[in-house]
Design goal:
Beta-Lactamase, about 160 residues, five-stranded antiparallel beta sheet
């Protein structure tokens, strides 16, 4: 089967936000972002107003892509967890379900061990949500693309909108 288009619906979006909101508290993190592998921000919780979320999302995806290249050079499929330690803040970046990137920003109020422990549990929950989304997308694709919310929009419609 072809790779179905993944569409985020409100029900799953709320579930995702519940999981990352709980992770924010349990890991004592400052902010958590969920980004797709193309660099698009899916969601963020915590002190998000402090950041240029568009740049953070695209740079995170670029970081994952670059380390993926490094992994292949040494014979690995990918590095599923990255950690960046700063003077004040730390970044824990992990790939969830092979589909999305979970970014946890934390400071000295938390620890790497606590973050890793909490991320592991949350990653399992997020993977289940995205698996459910994939099944919905596959089912919609089997029934035909007319179920896709933007199926009726053509390239001509887009061109007309911007001309």
């Amino acid at each position: 089967m072809s790779n179905p288009t993944l569409v985020m619906y409100d029900e799953e979006f709320q579930e995702v936000n519940e999981v990352i909101g709980r992770l924010l508290k349990e890991a004592n993190a400052k902010v958590i972002f969920l980004v797709d592998k193309n660099g698009q921000l899916i969601s963020g919780v915590g002190e998000t107003e402090r950041f240029d979320t568009t740049s953070l999302a695209s740079l995170t995806a670029g970081n994952i892509a670059a380390t993926g290249g490094l992994a292949k050079l040494i014979g690995e499929k990918e590095f599923s967890i990255l950690f960046h330690e700063g003077e004040k803040d730390n970044l824990h970046i992990s790939i969830v379900g092979g589909r999305v990137i979970l970014v946890v920003l934390f400071d000295n109020r938390s620890s790497l061990g606590l973050v890793r422990l909490r991320v592991k549990k949350s990653s399992e929950e997020l993977s289940a949500i995205f698996e459910k989304l994939m099944k919905k997308s596959e089912e919609r694709e089997r029934r035909g693309s007319s179920d896709f919310p933007f199926a009726e929009i053509t390239d001509d419609d887009i061109d007309n909108l911007f001309s």
